[in-house]
Each structure stands twice: as structure tokens, then as C-alpha cells.
Design brief:
Largest sheet: 5 strands, parallel
Strand order of the largest sheet: 2-1-3-4-5
Oligomer: single chain
Structural class: alpha/beta
Amino acid sequence: MPFDDSPFAAAGAMLDAMPRKLLIVEDERKTASFLAHALEEDGWEIEVSHTGKGMVDRLLSGGFEAALLDINLPGEDGLSITRKLRAAGSPLPVLMLSARGAVDERVEGLDVGADDYLAKPFAIAEVVARVRALARRVGGTGAEGRALRLAVGDLTLDLVSREVSRAGQKIDLSPREFRLLEVLMRHAGKPCPRSQLLSEAWDFNFDPGTNLVEVYIRRLREKVDGDHDRKLLHTMRGMGYVVRDDAA
């Protein structure tokens, strides 16, 4: 039976008409003020906190489209907040900010579930651009955004319920694994090079110099293909990774 996305399209139109809310959690008051002003100019409704205390419950209460979290916060740090959000099943986009710039520290932030990372000092314009990218990805614009359910063979990914299943069996994925699989399935049958996956699944316009993609591909392969005789996730040497059903 064809998937009817008309109710969700109508809901999307209603959401587009509502103010976009974003929570900034930053203990440096001057930085928080600059960020709030720039994002308000870009059309966001901003709420600011200078402490991490109580922010998990605030974010889980709903109403926000994204969050900017500093790692070093009084009360509760950004890593802990993000980790608890993901443990609670929240897919809320998180852009992590930190004075830390080492590669392993950036990876730590991404591994707990942050969607993107910026090290201080940063350009305010870049923060605004990164937030826009997160909002586009979640809101879904254009023809790609209207595909609310993806399927390759007996593998399905539902962008509304955030559920993935294969042959009727639910697959539990982390938010990052879900995003990576979404990118691969949107390009089903076409190889996605490492640079493309970093750009679309991590919003990286640079190579962090780690085996981040390989680690997550391995995790996906274990969960998606597992003991299935028919493998859907393939490596194409020199070209990248692809999700395809060879039996189709």
C-alpha cells in the first residue's frame, strides 16, 4: 500500500508557520548574548540559560527545534546533557560549542550524540549557518524532505516515528546511526564516498582525520545485516558505501 504523506505534509505546513525555538546554554554571558542576537536576526525565538542545571528536563519538555550547548557548564556539562537526551530517545538536534579543539574531544562530543561541533573561537556567522543546516535536515525541504518513509528491500526507515526495521524486526539505532542510515538510504543504489557521508551525516565540511565513518559503518552493518543471508550494506572499494538490495 503506498505511503500517504498528506497528513504529515499538512502538519509540516503548520509547523513552518510557527516560530522556531532554540535553546542556548552558554555560561559566557557575552558569547550567549552575541549568539542570541545573531540567531534572533535569523528568525529564531531564543531562550538562554547560563547553567546546565535542569536543562535536560527543559529540552525534553518539547517546543525546541534545536539546542546550542557549551561543553563546560556549571550545574551539568553539555556532554552529560546530550547523553541524557539521547538515552531518553530525544532526536533534538544539538550543536556543541567548546573551547576544546582537539580531535579526540570533538569526537567525544559527537559520540555522545551531538549532531555538530564548533570549537571556540568561532565566527558567529558560521554558527548561524550550522544551525540553519540542522533545521533544514530535520524539517526537510524540497523533494528529499517529503520522503518520510524510506525502504530498501525489507529494510524500512520511518522519519516520523524514528523507527527502523528489517523483515518486520525493529532495529535499535543511536541518533547518529539513524542519520547515517538515512543518508545512505536516500541515495540507495548509489555509492556514497566518505566525504559525502561526513558532509550529510555530520555536517562536516572538513575531514576530522579519524575513522569516524568506518566505525559507524561497522556498527550499522552489525545491526542492519547481522545474521541475514542477504546483505544490504556494501563497501565499494575506492568509491564509498552503498545500501542496495541485489535481489531486487
